[in-house]
Amino acid sequence: MNDTNTSAEAVPSMSGGGCGPKGRTILRDSSERTPGREYGADAEHSDDAGVVAGSLAEWWRESARDLPWRFGRTTPWGVLVSEVMSQQTQMSRVVPYWQAWMERWPDAAALADAPKADVITAWGRLGYPRRALRLQECARVVANDYHDDLPHTYDELTALPGIGDYTASAVMSFAYGERIAVIDTNIRRVLSRVFLGTESRGGAASPAERALANKVLPEDPVAGCRGFDRPSVMWNQSVMELGAVICTAKSPLCEQCPVSAECAFLANGRPGLGERRTRPRQRFQGTDRQVRGLVLNALRGLPEGRSAVGREDLERLWNDHIQLDRCIASLDDDGLIDMLPDGSVRLPG
Questions:
Q1: Which among 169, 164, 163 is positioned nearest to 181, based on CA atoms?
Q2: Residue 333 buriedness (CB in 10 A; 0-12 / 13-18 / 19+)
Q3: CA distance to 6, 229, 330, 333, per residue, from 60 (Å)
Q4: In the chain, what are the domain boundaries?
Q5: Of 44, 83, 199, 241, which one is the catalytic site residue?
Q6: Residue-wise pLDDT tens digits, 27-38
Q7: Where is the HhH-GPD domain (predicted)?
Q8: What is the sign of the dihedral through the CA atoms of 258, 55, 53 and 27?
Q9: Contact yes or no for 81/102 (Cβ under 8 A)
Q10: What is the rounded (10 degree) CA torsion for 258, 262, 264, 270?
Q11: Is residue 32 among the annotated active site residues?
């Protein structure tokens, strides 16, 4: 992520009566450890997650980016929209799209009634435009089945269209202040490095990684704490933030890290730093994804009064017309465009 950290003055105070990291969490004995993997170079790296939580909380208060959906400044629906938009997309790109989206469609009911063409156009260059239509499907369920009130339970959230474990957990934590482990690529990388002393190689989260995330999650006080101030919420946010801006995959800024003194990975000499993920990154140039994007961008950029791109204009977008036709057909299958009898295409009504 390329966003610049904001100053402490720009971020609402996160101190409060009875709030902050509490409930020291300990990785207690070798029987709880994953076979064949050590939880750090020595005891101090594994036995006191509370020290890490305290350091991260202080860093979070001083350095957290002032994103518009943070610190209780949006609705649960706004949090969900931010999480869907942020998937596989740099946060700096998400902010203006999220602000424009929420101004236009501030709740599920508003999005549910929007024309598909407007939804696809507003998604812009966030990538993976099917997410926009899935989000609208989700909005219709929330508006119709839950009276425009986003569900409050994990099981109800994961039953919504397009909402998986990560997004449901993030909403439960960031929107509702519930104590639940949020597990994404950044969090897995930080936890693996700090507590296991090893590099996280990506892929799907393993049972061992999920067990670790649950084990080090701080306890929350019974009362007297705003949702975003609760230790478990601050932990999820700060660990994720650390992975995004400091403990990055290839070039971690260890000299700036607030938990470098507790990091087993750094103590071990950063073994395997930046090892390739289990699944290599897909190239973009020349792929069907690129061609699909060209077609959608041509439709989004039509001047007022025009609603379709003709066949000749489509063929100018891409020289390989066999690939072009395949991509147009796939966009039609996904409900992202309508194919007209004369070979032109338009955004769905």
A1: 169
A2: exposed
A3: 11, 11, 43, 44
A4: 22-75+150-281, 76-149, 288-346
A5: 83
A6: 333 333 332 233
A7: 85-245
A8: positive
A9: yes
A10: 30
A11: no
pTM of the model: 0.77
Concatenating the DSSP letter of every residue in 107-122 gives SHHHHHTS-HHHHHHH
Residues ≥6 apart with Cβ < 8 Å to 331: 292, 295, 296, 337, 345
168/161 Cα distance (integer angstroms):
11
Is the confidence at residue 191, as pLDDT, over 90? yes
Structure confidence at residue 238 as a pLDDT band (50, 70, 90): very high
Residue 133: C-alpha distances to residues 24, 64, 162 (Å)? 43, 31, 9
Q: Which CATH class is domain 22-75+150-281?
A: mainly alpha
- Short-list 215, 194, 212, 200, CA closest to 264: 194
The reported pLDDT for the residue numbered 281 is 57
| CATH 2.60.40.10 is right for the domain spanning 76-149 | no
And the tokens for 346? Answer: 């338009």
- The CATH number of the structural domain formed by 288-346 is 1.10.10
